[in-house]
Write a structure and sequence with these properties.
five-stranded parallel beta sheet, 9 domains, 62% helix, 47 helices, Arc Repressor Mutant, subunit A
């Protein structure tokens, strides 16, 4: 039960003197004034504090009229409240009384009277009660946060049963249907019916207030009280934290964050076998394991039905129940009942619309409501009846609120409707600048609208930001259109966001990550402005400027598809617009090229786009743009297996960087050079470049390079150095660097950086050292990031890593299938992401399936790819793998060929200073010699290589080498 406020407790002071328990009784009802509980047959009935205080006053005067003024004076002493506040609590009290609601009578215009035989029982003192309670087990509150039912759910008995049946066979059900159909009401009723089955662990999470889909996991974690530690709050981390807990999660109002809700639901489905989900959404979520339940309208009577038949339809029953909640004496029959039936038909049995109509009918009568229904709800009676926008059913209420506002606040409210993602004081001032409002006056008007519940402070953003609720905003846009101001206000809004973002992008000090976050909060506003800008008769030039300025923000937010599509739209109209500068066109080309990289666009197209941008940057002598383009070109060449072209781009980057005084550029140049040397097979030089990078690293005063390179340079450098150290045989140092880079990436909380660290450092080092658990964790993290980042590049790369891991585990079929699919995707677009490495892994998987001929063909494809593009770092391992495959063929010739490939692998590994590859080749060669009883030769092959290691002796390869040498020693003793 809720505690009463101080003023409310004063009402009961006289009634609980001397420690006596004061209980009123009437039939099966009890009112315990000491405990402040309303009980039915001993079970507590939820009732708010103010409603209980009203009940207490009425009990003192049971049978007598208590005027409205007296009630308000005693329940709200020294406080001015509106009369409808009292009516709200009277209505709540009637709902709590249920079928006995008639005991609370209304004297129209005067007050209320409580009827019935209410007697006082004072048979126990508080001390006695405490002693008695001590002998009983403590009643533990249920963990659920489900709201108590405040009214009878009408017309949904069959639906509740069907949903219970669905949830008994499936763990996830989505209730879908149009707005106002009653999805939330039905979901909560089902959840309440299952409280016992889930031991009370039924939780409601209403995401309707979220504007950022990425916050869905955070909201669920907070509602469930999950302790995620240092984990990034993501669908996977929430699911991991839930684990095996048995609970029912009601995920409500998902339609505006549907992708995020689907990812969360799917993660819980996969990881939480004892958790069930009931979701509500206007659209199906479409996640694995989802069962869909389409919520139907209530039953409506046809014309010419008899009165008894009309009353049997659930839509009519709901109408009457809601009308009686407003007026207990509401008792329709004959023509009134037929009017109700007609209203329900016109409203298509939609519960929300019926409730609004019923509330008016209680005051005006059903016939009057029916006569004005077409005027007030014209949109509800025409067109597709199931498409019922929520704001249309609330138009009358919003009309009333709007008309009560003074004209300056009306003007402000309707103009604020143009902001799809909330607004700041500066933004509001921009659309009100023609009114000459001082900022202080405008702030007062905003405060007034907040107080009248027409706008709200945006709690998800820093102070000084507000938003309109969805329904209010839709209403504001309608009245804005009616006012004739829409074009002017939208133009002002568009100019504000153009100036805001373009000024930040073109300033001498590049934007910081904080700036990007600030611009990111405006994304829905920018989307709306751009949609308007490219519409007929709008300002196309403004749209092009804003698209170019906002492109880095889309990339920073990993919205790569949206970035690509928006830029392509701008470029489509660019040629016909002579007012757009060459610099602006270049900016669009640069951002398009980068977006195409992450969306796995055609490599050939990306080259052309970036080459065109580079030519423009050179003609404009824009060093910053040249560096960004060369960095992007390097990435294109690197990930399409063209190491020689990548090296050329890296060298050119270094030359251009010398023209800049920015100290952050030198480490980037070292990073590109080190990566080129690493993939080109020059590991000693690569190590030197990475160490120079780390030594030269200077934290930039701003974060431009993180924004356009999409990773933290220092953290990334440590990850790539880790793999080089492993290749050179410095195994423990490599592991330490990989672990440190992963830790730093998690602390930085920058998703692209973490993704690159997993790819370059954490996963390969874990796999190469035989730590398959850590490798699996890295893959799981990358898959989650790939889903969050939404870029095909990351999804394909994560798929490649997962396939390689599965093959290493011996899961040859699934692993080979994953790799085939990912490599086919790459081949279609011209990408060859680490092609030699993953083709080599595919060959291993095919061999595990006994498909040795195809495996050899795949190895040859891999070697040819490495030779063609210059990506030679994996060649020694490929040669060793080919030798192992040849040993599966019969005949001396195959053995001889295998020996030749093992020898080549040793030679290439030595040339590349890749001691770890040399060890693997030596192990394979020594095992062959051991099988041939050439023990001395085997020892001479393996022992010197093993002897050059100074660390990492507990990793998989070194343990294998030690086992072979020990076997040779035992044989020698025999």
């Amino acid at each position: 039960m809720l505690r009463l406020a101080t003023s409310e407790r004063g009402i009961l002071t006289r009634m609980s003197e001397h420690g006596q328990q004061v209980v009123y009784e009437s039939g099966e009802w009890e009112v315990d004034l000491t405990r402040r509980e309303l009980r039915m047959r001993g079970d507590s009935v939820p009732l708010g504090g103010r409603a209980f205080a009203i009940f207490a006053v009425l009990l003192q005067s049971a049978g007598k009229l208590v005027t409205r003024d007296e009630l308000m004076a005693r329940v709200w002493p020294e406080t001015i409240v509106e009369e409808n506040t009292l009516e709200v609590h009277i209505s709540a009290l009637r709902k709590a009384l249920g079928q006995e609601r008639e005991t609370l009578r209304t004297s129209f215009g005067r007050g209320y009277r409580l009827v019935g035989d209410w007697t006082i029982r004072q048979d126990r003192t508080l001390e006695d009660q405490i002693a008695l309670d001590a002998t009983r087990p403590a009643v533990q509150p249920l963990p659920s946060n489900l709201p108590a039912r405040t009214f009878e759910v009408i017309g949904r008995t069959a639906a509740v049963q069907q949903l219970q049946d669905l949830l008994s066979g499936y763990r996830a059900v989505t209730l879908t249907g149009p707005g106002g159909i009653g999805k939330t009401t039905l979901a909560l009723e089902v959840a309440r019916s299952l409280l016992a089955a889930f031991d009370g662990a039924c939780w409601l999470v209403d995401v309707v207030s979220l504007s950022d889909p990425n916050l869905v996991p955070s909201m669920v974690a907070g509602a469930l009280g999950l302790k995620l530690g240092g984990d990034e709050i993501s669908p996977e981390s929430v699911a991991r934290a839930l684990g095996g807990r048995r609970l029912l999660l009601v995920l409500d109002n998902c339609e505006h964050v549907i992708d995020a809700a689907a990812r969360l639901a799917e993660a819980i489905q996969h990881r939480c076998p004892a958790a069930s989900i009931v979701a509500t959404s206007r659209e199906v979520l479409r996640f694995e394991g989802e069962q869909v339940y389409r919520v139907l309208p209530l039953e409506v009577p046809e014309q010419h039905h008899e009165e008894s038949v009309i009353l049997g339809h659930s839509a009519v029953q709901l109408f009457i129940a809601r009308a009686r909640a407003m007026d207990p004496d509401f008792a329709p029959h004959d023509e009134k009942l037929r009017a109700i039936a007609a209203i329900c038909r016109h409203l298509d049995g939609i519960p929300l619309a019926i409730e609004f109509a019923a509330a008016r009918a209680a005051m005006l009568g059903p016939e009057l409501v029916l006569s004005r229904l077409d005027e007030r709800f014209a949109l509800l009676t025409g067109g597709r009846r199931t498409a019922l926008p929520r704001h249309q059913t609330l138009r009358a209420t919003l009309d009333w609120s709007y008309e009560l506002l003074p004209e300056p606040e009306r003007c402000l409210l309707r103009r604020l409707g143009v902001f799809a993602a909330g607004f700041t004081l500066e933004a509001a001032n921009a659309v009100m600048n023609d009114k000459g409002c001082a900022p202080s006056v405008l702030l007062d008007q905003i405060a007034n609208l907040v107080a009248k519940s027409l706008i709200a402070l945006d709690g998800t953003a820093p102070a000084g930001r507000w938003r309109l609720l969805e329904t209010t905003r839709a209403y504001a846009l309608e009245v804005l259109a009616e006012s004739g101001e829409a074009e002017q206000v939208t133009q002002s809004c568009a100019e504000f966001f153009r100036d805001l973002v373009a000024a930040g992008q073109s300033s001498q000090v590049p934007p910081t990550a904080e700036d990007m976050a600030r611009y990111g909060r405006e994304i829905d506003n920018v989307r709306a402005v751009l949609d308007w800008s490219f519409s007929p008769a709008a300002d196309v030039t403004l749209g092009i400027v804003l698209t170019a300025a906002y492109a880095p923000v889309w990339l920073y937010l990993s919205l790569v598809f949206e970035c690509r599509d928006r830029i392509e739209r701008a470029l489509d109209v660019l040629e016909s617009d002579s007012n757009v500068s060459a610099h602006l066109a270049m900016q669009l080309q640069v951002s398009l090229g980068i977006a195409l990289v992450y969306t796995l666009g055609s490599v050939e197209r990306i080259r052309k786009v970036l080459a065109k941008a580079l030519s423009a940057a050179e003609s404009l002598d824009d060093v910053g743009a040249m560096l960004e383009i060369l960095f992007a070109l390097y990435g294109v060449y690197h990930h399409s297996g063209e190491c020689r072209e990548a090296q050329s781009a890296a060298e050119r980057f270094s030359r251009v960087a010398l023209r800049s005084s920015d100290p952050a550029l030198a480490p980037i140049a070292h990073r590109l050079a080190g990566n080129t040397l690493n993939y080109g097979g020059k590991q000693r030089e690569a190590q030197h470049s990475f160490e120079c990078m780390i030594e030269a690293y200077v934290a930039p005063e701003y974060q431009r390079h993180t924004i356009w390179s999409r990773y933290d340079l220092r953290v990334m450098g440590r990850a790539t150095l880790a793999r080089v150290l492993w290749l050179r045989g410095l195994v423990d140092q490599g592991v330490a660097q990989a672990e440190a880079s992963l830790k730093d990436a998690r602390i930085a909380d920058h998703q692209p950086t973490l993704a690159w660290v997993l790819h370059y450092g954490a996963f390969p080092v874990a796999l190469m050292t035989g730590d398959l658990v850590a490798a699996g964790q890295a893959v799981a993290m990358l898959k989650a990031l790939a889903s969050s980042l939404g870029a095909p590049f990351w999804r394909v790369l994560a798929q490649c890593l997962e396939g390689k891991l599965q093959i290493t585990r011996g899961e040859f079929g699934p692993g080979s299938a994953l790799l085939r699919d990912a490599l086919d995707t790459c081949e279609r677009t011209g990408w060859t992401i680490c092609n030699p490495e993953f083709l080599g892994a595919l060959a291993e998987g095919l061999a595990g399936l006994g498909q040795f001929s195809e495996a050899l063909v795949t190895i040859d494809r891999s070697l040819a790819s490495a030779d063609r593009g210059g990506e030679r770092w994996y060649v020694a391992e490929l040669l060793r793998a080919k030798g192992e495959l040849l040993l599966h063929e019969a005949g001396d010739e195959s053995v001889s060929r295998a020996e030749g490939y093992f020898a080549q692998a040793l030679e290439v590994a030595r040339e590349q200073d890749a001691l770890s590859w040399e060890l693997r080749a030596a192990i394979s060669f020594a095992r062959l010699r051991l099988s041939q009883n050439r023990h001395d030769n085997a020892r001479r092959l393996l022992a010197p290589v093993y002897g050059r290691f100074t660390e990492g002796f507990e990793t998989a390869d070194l343990r294998s080498a030690r086992a072979v040498l020990q076997s040779l020693s035992r044989t020698a003793r025999l």
